[in-house]
Amino acid sequence: MPSTSLPCRIDHFADLVDPRVDRTKRHALLDIVAIAVCGVICGADSWGEIEEFGHAKVTWLRSFLALPGGIPSHDTFGRVFAALDPTQFERCFLGWVRAFAKETAGEVIAVDGKTLRRSHDRLAGHGPLHLVSAWATERGVALGQVRVADHANEIVALPRLLETLVLDGAVVTVDAIGCQTAVAQAIVAGRADYVLALKGNQPATAEAVTTLFADARATSFDPLAYDAAETVEKGHGRIETRRCWAVSDPAFLAYLDPVGRWPGLRSVVLVEAERRVGSATSREARYYLSSLPGDAARLNAVVRAHWAIENQLHWVLDIAFREDESRVRTGHAAQNLAVLRRLALNLLRRERSTTVGIKAKRLKAGWDERYLLRILSS
Question: For residue 272, what are the domain limits?
Fold first, then answer.
């Protein structure tokens, strides 16, 4: 019999509905989930690797799991996670996140999509899995994700994701594809503010804002009510200057949105990023709609914070977890394995007794059971 209780909050998955028929339940569902969670933390990136982890750590696993059928085979892991309801699994993940990641007032929550490029199944006519994720930039935590249905786009998935999150007091940033009135409404309904990137998918609004800033800069913004701020960062052989202008002039906002399509709109924003590497200089201008007041310094920081979802979530999933290389594709398996990766990433980031990178933490957890237990209990 196991000598200790389940580590950390693996019991958040105790209410999962088992998709198997009774005669096939040789292994307890929670045992399968617990081994998978531990295996992914310790560097396993496939069902076969999770099985090998289980055999290597069977004595340690028996300290808190009954394992009446021993370690499940890789086929069992694959079948179970292919059949598990991904909505239920993500709901359990969300409960885990809420149990340890307390909300921070005013925190930037970045929302963006990511495609798992090798998860497609051409024979079955399925494209690669595309997920829209939310990332708490200050806490460094993946808050949740939803799948974008085949032949659909992120516009439909974004409100569904936002409805699952606790947004009260946050600032939600979304890339240009999410610059939609329905997305803005969902954010405001969650008692949060928004900063939405503005591009050609809102052509009339984008043209009006672009023209506004071109004319305003030519006349030193006279007579518009505006604010400006600038930051300069140096490192890795480059100098990056970010200049931000925020216009909150009521007359222009009324002209831009005369019937109030954009709920709570309080400012329009231009951020000009200039990067110098040696003698080469590049510039890029980006435009935004926001429900925040026209504080250029704050808006500049919020726009900058959005890129954390690329650098701290998507890039790490591809480099440290090899997500983009994963060929898992049967049933719901790819989506559920993506949840396991994000859960593991959250726990690895939360454990701060060592300053090495995520990949090194995964290796150390596989070598040192005491360190693995510390991660699970963090």
Answer: 99-313
